[in-house]
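Obj.: predict assembly geometry.
Materials: sequence records (below).
Method: joint structure prediction, all chains together.
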Amino acid sequence: MTSVFGTVMERLSAGQSPRSVARELGISVDLAQAVAAEAGRLGLTVTADAACGTCATPRSLACAGCPMASRGPASG
Amino acid sequence: MSTAPPTSRRTATVMLVGNPNVGKSTVFNHLTRARQRVVNAPGTTVTLAQGTWTTPTLTATLIDLPGTYSLIARSPDELVAADAVTGGDYDLAVVVLDATALSRSLYLLGQVAAAHPGPLIAAVTMMDLARSRGIAPDLDALAQALGIPTIALNGRSGAGADSLAQAVTTTLAHPTRVTGIDPARHRADPAHPLECAENLFDWVHGVLEAAQPPVAARRTLTDHLDRILLTPWAGIPVFLAVVWGVFQLTTSVATSLMDAVTGFMAGPVADALTKVLTWLHAPQWLTSLSVDGALSGVGTVLSFVPLMAIMFAAVAVLEGSGYLARVAVVADRAMRALGLDGRAMLPLIVGFGCNVPALAATAVLPHARQRLLTGLLVPLTTCTARLAIYLMLAHTFIPDHAGTVVFAMYVAAIVLVIVWGLIARHTVMRDITPEPLVIALPDYQLPHLRTVGLGVWTRVASFVTKAGTVIMMAVVALWAVQAIPVHGGHRLGDVPIEDSVYGVVSESVAPALEPMGLNNWRVSAALISGVAAKEVVIGALAQSYALDGSDDATLSDHLRATITDTSNSHPTAAALALMVFSLSYLPCLATMAEQRRLFGWRWTALAGGAQLTGSYLLAIAVFQVGVAL
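Observations (raw structure tokens):
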């Protein structure tokens, strides 16, 4: 039998969001998010903003136009 | 540890363990009141709150550990919590569970139970909030599933504190184990961390099924859309269509605004500055530097502000909706199909904003060789600075299809990344093993107007700031080398530009651009200047024309005339060749410096040489094919 961890990871690998995985599997959103977070700690997943925080200064041009800087340079 | 009978007053050390923001510290403050102090965790700068909790049957030293979601620590705070739990220097642990996020809390509880054989108690907080959301657990069922005392606790009001005290006293006397947790199967094992996580989550799932209201499986429209949009066969065409739409919108709406800004800078602003300098009796060289040099160069770059603002707004809407994060997933699959590592997508996407932080972002890759390969590919992603070059050339030479041309440059950048990546993978990087990327995506949502506005404002502000600093300095430096005579017997500062250091060096390089129809010293000078920073290219062109003459023609008029001449009346082909060359000929100095810092001179020089050669040959091919067609 496939574990809940394995099932959630399989769906995340298919590009689904944790919320979407939870809806489809009928599990709590919190459980799917917990799996994603722990998988991140184990080096199996990253979040979309994982590459942020690499900008030299918060207001540098580095973040201008950056598709990952979801809150603009402040998040960079 | 203490072993006194439950009926007498006893002492014990009790740890408070829990996720961040679970209300643990509120519980701690309520139980200890003023009897608390802050101490440093042994050997660290992490502080712990320690207090005395007195009840009719117990005097406990209560330690409030830093909040953590897991005993696999990611920060010094979490490491202190993990070490304290696994160290076992306590009599009992109270694991505080958040009723609104029970899974995460239970996972930590399972880890704690597996890590240390001592007694445990579960204290559930946030029950009111969980009830209002319809997700409150059945505490009796939860206690039965866990097999340990389970208390509802309200840290603010103190409700449940007496029950907790009683449970602590009883549990110390009669320790109980968490049902279903076997240290042999669930304890974190560095050799098999995945297996341990799988077992623990199965246990969490079982407890949730016993204690929490069931969640009905369902799919929303978003889920159905994602299932289509996240496949490469649909996702890539849709993404390309979206990007094309953004550039079409940007270039069509912004043209008149750009013209207005250009006219304003070249007209009223230039006139006013000239009058002020004349009134101040400024020398001719200073007027030339200020009006023809700095204002001309910076003004041209500033004319792109309306266009940048529109594009940034479109991008902000896309990212605010959650769509752009999905692009990484789609791109990841396409990259993996080509044998490239999926995780490389994140820094490469950042590279489309600016290459320098993208190089730093290669840190998300786990292996040095993967970081190296990605770091060598990053300069091929076309940063915002290069966008200004494409826009100027597209508007000048292919005005009816400017959006499509700029879009094509972005596609060309992606193709270059793939081609260079494949070449590297099959030559100097044969040892790299691709690894999959799993991105925890955000849900789709309506973008917030304020967030979009703030993002546009900060990005435009940073663009203008750079135009006002780096570009200004570069333009002044260029003006200086244009003032030094090489031949012709001119005085310093009174030199026809073609007799200056700038002109002579540029003239000597220009013939190399002949095969791509661009044998002109202004073009070569602008490209050389662009190595300092790509934003300077357009400013340098504008400055060279402004210094050379005093007619009212715009930069576009000058460029059109020059390139028509150098290309033997094939200006469109030459302009496309110039765009392709600008895309990848050499990274800017800041990017090269970062590459050298991360990978050393040898790789930086190798990558730069390969890029320069490749882009040169490609630009020649573009021009020659364009002429043949």
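Conclusions so far: Chain B is about 60% helix and 10% strand.
To do: check interface contacts against the pulldown list.
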